[in-house]
Amino acid sequence: MKTLIVGASTHPGRYAYLAANRLLSYGHEIVLLGKENGEVAGYPILHGKPELEGIDTITLYINPTRQPELYEYMLSLKPKRIIFNPGTENPEFEAMAEERGVQALEACTLVMLGTGQY
């Protein structure tokens, strides 16, 4: 299962950084998207709107005010679900996703992994 982490960070204290490493430790494939330059666990942080295929899950770590510019891009990836981690909840985008058959979850990726719900 391939997960796109939106809001990827090279800072070890950030939840996006923790999620990237935890997803890898659980055997999930990751793709990182963010504004920072660098890499996490050997994976480069991509910028802009790269062409991607096979994205099963998008997990968000960006503020709702930064999400609108990525709405159509993220939906064009045709994920099965989008996880709105704490602080990223966005009723407008959640409704758009659901209308297109994408499951919108207000949840925590780290908790989901830890409890076997991922």
TrEMBL record:
Entry superkingdom: Bacteria
Protein name (Swiss-Prot/TrEMBL): CoA-binding protein
Signal peptide: none
All copies of domain CoA-binding, residue ranges: 3-113
Cited InterPro entries: CoA-bd, NAD(P)-bd_dom_sf
Pfam families assigned to the protein according to its UniProt record, in alphabetical order: CoA_binding_2
